[in-house]
């Protein structure tokens, strides 16, 4: 007791509580109770791509959480969600760094299981970094098409190819994936997108434009091998299978695919194929590339017509009942379009 006032001292006095539950502490009148601890929460993010009717997790995408001027970044994983720890229960911003606003979207937003909500770890908040929006001119290299370049630059292929400065290139090429090495492709700046997210939830973000069309024609003596069962093996991707249709295998594969292995029922051995961007048919190099794809390699695919290339061309002309001149002309291009390009 305070001898001068007869009241409680400024120190906290506690009395033993011996009722009903054993010993505990109850504050005496005039004291204050400590504030309850603030519960921090986690937030989880998975980045996926669509494969047919399903999805596949993607790694190596940088996910950024923001609150005010602070930033918290984690890479996505192909083996599970990225987990942001120690967050206050307020709205945060979320974005995919380096990806245009049209090239990703929210697929799923769901509450975390109760046992996964609480987080006692410290968040790794850092100052903001200057946004890198890209854009500029790119010189096309061998094997590059718009689908691959759009994936690299964080755009949808149709946005990259439809960019107004690319109008002259669109007029000069048959399709967005028949580019010449040395072509100048203009890349638009990326437009960032941010969505509101709440800790205690799991968000699944879908990256768009990651797949490309692969079309192969399987022939024996220039006759399509129809309804033949095939296995198509792609590195780091599920094996695809089915029957050929009018001799064609027509499937969606990752835009980054550079090689495949095809096994066809009835053929003696698997076929190893290196995928390259198809050169324009109007070019001599494009003609040689198609002859090579049809099993008639010219020895080179740079457009040079040496003795071997001319001999191969004469053989092709004979097989399609043309005069064997050994020279590339519009009749040769028409025959190649029918045999190779036409869907």
From TrEMBL:
<dbReference type="Pfam" id="PF01471">
    <property type="entry name" value="PG_binding_1"/>
</dbReference>
<dbReference type="InterPro" id="IPR036365">
    <property type="entry name" value="PGBD-like_sf"/>
</dbReference>
<feature type="domain" description="Peptidoglycan binding-like">
    <location>
        <begin position="287"/>
        <end position="336"/>
    </location>
</feature>
<protein>
    <recommendedName>
        <fullName>Peptidoglycan binding-like domain-containing protein</fullName>
    </recommendedName>
</protein>
<dbReference type="InterPro" id="IPR036366">
    <property type="entry name" value="PGBDSf"/>
</dbReference>
<dbReference type="InterPro" id="IPR002477">
    <property type="entry name" value="Peptidoglycan-bd-like"/>
</dbReference>
